[in-house]
Amino acid sequence: MTEYSLPLPVLEGHSADFYGFCKEGELRFQRCDGCGAWRHVPRELCAECGSWEWTWTLSSGKGEVFTYTVVGRALHPAFDDSVPYAVSVVEMEEGVRVLSRVADVEPGELEIGMPVQVDFEAVTDEISLPIFRRVTG
Amino acid sequence: MKEACIVGIGQTDYCRKPGSGMSQLALQLQAASRAIGEAGLKPGEIDGIMPFPNLGRAEEFAANLGCENLRYAATIHMGGAAPVASLQAAAAAVNSGMANYVLLPAGWNGYSGARVRQTVSQDVSSIPGGEIARDYYLPFGFTAPPQWYSVLARRHMHEFGTRSEQLGAIALAMRKHAQLNSNAVMHGKPMTMDGYLASPMLADPYRFFDCCLETDGGAAVVVTSAERARDLETRPVRILAAASGQPYPADEITNRRDIFRTGLTIAAPEAFGKAGLKPSDVDFAMIYDCFTFEVLQQLEEVGFCERGEGGSFVEGGRIELGGELPVNTHGGLLSEAHVLGMSHIVEAVRQLRGELGERQVKDAELGVVTGWGDFGDGSIALLAR
Predict the structure, then answer these.
(1) DSSP assignment of B17-86, as one string?
(2) Which candidate in A15, A29, A67, A110 is best for mutational testing of the B interface (most B CBs within 10 A)?
(3) Cβ-Cβ contacts under 8 Å, B136 against chain A
(4) Could you give the domains of chain B?
(5) Above 0.85 for ipTM, yes or no?
């Protein structure tokens, strides 16, 4: 694997858990044991009902593009060679939204409402990022 | 008159090349010193200081200026919403006796110092969300304000049919106003719609000309009680009401049930309610214009028009001088300079004093100033002569 030069998440606390599941090929979100509410990003307790109990619950991995941008000029030096690149906010079937990218769609082809399915990209030996692919047919 | 008042304003020269040639602190001290002097005060009388977040400490302002009686020092951590939120806090401070005269300084070398491109890569804690942004945004290249807010603009276009030309109308209005302001960095550099549309995409739908300037400059104001204002030389501008608010959640911009509900959605009704006024009473608005769409969105959330109607509201010269609601008569962050929104307060004060010559809003009696910061924190003040 060539040297990966883009920013990486830090595997601490809840992020260690979230990205740990991603490495296993699973997109899991916290789901409140008290009221069943799904949440992302990870939190310490449920803002809906106050419960401190939750379970990392498997997502269907299905969602649709809620909104997006196409970055034409990088505003972080690490992304200088990546432009133009798109960033999408994906709304999952469970209701939570995930910031990511749709890997197999050209930036100019993105559309709000486009159905997508999660996939994982192993960017280092330790870290896999959740990305999305267009669902066709 | 019982409301707290703004009694002194100060500005530095605003510039890009070759840079201010001053330190960030010195720039702010120059503006502060001018504001204190204009009010006819001595530095020793300034007993409250509210620095802009992460741009200076009250202790160093006090030590340099000679504020030997400092007793109230606080910073409101709301990014670009901080100056107007600080007006709210300063008014409360002088009305409750926590301080007599409160200085609000702001300023930076946004051009010749660290640029936006560098800051995040050097210090993730400098951006809202902190570790959330580090772990869930940065790996995907979602690193800077135009990108964060562009996804709101894109969604607004989807839901309401807002068009690029309507964002352009905002950029053009600010640029037109800057032609009447010799301290504006874009003075002498008019813009056309074709020029706007031809500018390169920075973060779709934001073109280069949808984005605020990076400039060097400082601005400051001094707030005191109505009673003390009477004894000063300058014509006081009254803070009729001010309010602040945060979106929910404020530390994560993508997971909001209603993505257009920002801090101002909460703050604006509170401010108008306190003052017993409504948006249609307002003669002008200084709207924190970090990007064009944020102007449109704030106009909607303040209540100048319904949500979804901002696009048509900004067309036809309505927000230009001579229009129904002149917005940012100084040129704003887009075409005057990026002085963190303190420049918007200064311009509002000057309008209400009636000292702006060819960019004066005729018979201006009531103005709105807003702030927008971080992932949508909001603040608003209703100012009157």
Answers:
(1) TB--SS-HHHHHHHHHHHHHHHTT--GGG--EE-PPTTS--HHHHHHHHT-TT--EE-----GGGHHHHH
(2) A67
(3) 9, 15, 41, 99
(4) 5-112+213-384 (3.40.47.10)
(5) yes
